[in-house]
Write a structure and sequence with these properties.
Layout (H helix, E strand, L loop, with lengths): L2 H7 L2 E7 L12 H11 L3 E4 L2 E2 L1 H4 L4 H19 L5 E4 L1 E3 L8 E4 L3 H7 L7 H8 L5 E4 L17 E6 L8 H11 L2 E5 L12 E4 L6 H10 L3 E4 L2 E3 L5
Parallel strand pairs: 1-2, 2-4, 3-5, 7-8, 8-9
Antiparallel strand pairs: 1-10, 5-6, 6-7, 10-11, 11-12
């Protein structure tokens, strides 16, 4: 199958990993501007995966944190209203006592309140108690400096193609880990700042409209990665 046929069969492009300010303090741009950037690029779906960490918890009550955390998501959705861009909710959660990050898809706004107490636990507790048939939990960029391996059985997969330009995510090692343990994989730009967008997009046959569509697409494994126009087939069929 040639490149043109592949891109025609998988025409819909989704950003799986993006951050906005102020909810992610590492993000450089407000959520509405992030949405406009991806709309102008021609993406079909943008997933905001802002950080949820102990740093957030110590500053706010649970109710305040839920409202604060979702505020950027709501801003991005409002900016995309009436356009061809869908905005979906994702979460990048970090547990106390570790620098590991985990991407969670297949969630809605009610899940944010449920997730908050788990920040003070660990990935094993979170996976046992939060995992369900509708979501998917992935170890983000698992081979960056200071990251620790997650015990097999406590994630559904790993983010292999993380294209953040400021980190060495050791893509080959992440890909090998996924192959050795038959894990689901994802890829994303890990967008934080201007001109760093859409460096790795997910390509699918159908448009992904919400977080649950994202989870189902990843679990189906019927996806491609679009790395700045270069097509990657992540599974051997």
């Amino acid at each position: 199958m040639d490149l043109r046929s592949l891109t025609e069969e998988y025409p819909y492009r989704t950003e799986l990993h993006a951050h906005s300010n102020p909810v992610s303090s590492c993000g450089k741009l407000p959520a509405d501007e992030v949405a406009r950037i991806y709309l102008d690029y021609g993406c079909d779906t943008l997933v905001l995966t802002n950080h949820l960490t102990e740093h957030h918890i110590v500053k706010r009550s649970a109710d305040e944190l839920v409202e604060y955390y979702l505020s950027d998501y709501h801003k991005a959705k409002k900016a995309a209203e009436g356009t061809g861009l869908s905005v979906a909710l994702g979460v990048e959660i970090r547990f106390t006592g570790t620098v590991n990050d985990y991407l969670v898809y297949g969630v809605d706004e009610n899940d944010i309140e449920r997730m908050i107490p788990f920040v003070l636990t660990d990935i094993q507790t979170f996976y046992r108690e939060f995992k369900n048939d509708r979501n998917i939990i992935l170890h983000a960029h698992p081979f960056r400096d200071r990251m620790e391996p997650t015990p097999i059985g406590y994630v559904d997969g790993v983010e292999t193609f993380n294209m953040h330009p400021g980190h060495n995510s050791r893509i080959a090692f992440a890909t090998r880990l996924a192959r050795e343990h038959d894990l689901t994989v994802s890829g994303g730009s890990d967008f934080h700042e201007k001109d760093r967008h859409a460096t790795c997009l997910l390509r699918t046959k159908t448009k992904l409209r919400d977080s649950f569509d994202i989870a189902e697409a990843l679990k189906s494994r019927d996806v491609l990665f679009d790395v700045s126009g270069h097509i990657v087939i992540p599974y051997l069929y």
